[in-house]
Amino acid sequence: MAKKRVFISYDYDHDKGMKELVSGQAKKPDSPYEIIDFSTKLSTPEKDWIEKARKAISQADVFMLMLGPKTKKTAGVLKELKIATELKIMTIQIIGYKFGTEDWAVPGGGNVYKWDWENLKKLLS
Hints:
Rossmann fold, five-stranded parallel beta sheet, 21% strand
């Protein structure tokens, strides 16, 4: 069975480690997903950044928001979610920290789940 292609959206300034961990899980032999990597700050010119993001997101089967305490106010995350919504990509939200809550959810970002390996395998199979 082909692996699902996942685009991860996260708060680059505060939650990069979380993205690296979920990317590492994708390398497990029993992983049902692979990562489409588009890690960049919103520092390139807006037009170029949007075009590159749209291209990467369009290649995904799933758009996954990794939730930290500031994610729902992060400009890049909100722009990426808007693109995923326009492209009708399935979106899910994963609480990225043990102390996290559903209050961190991004409005319109899809269902919210706890981050554990079994959840990821079920959601992304």
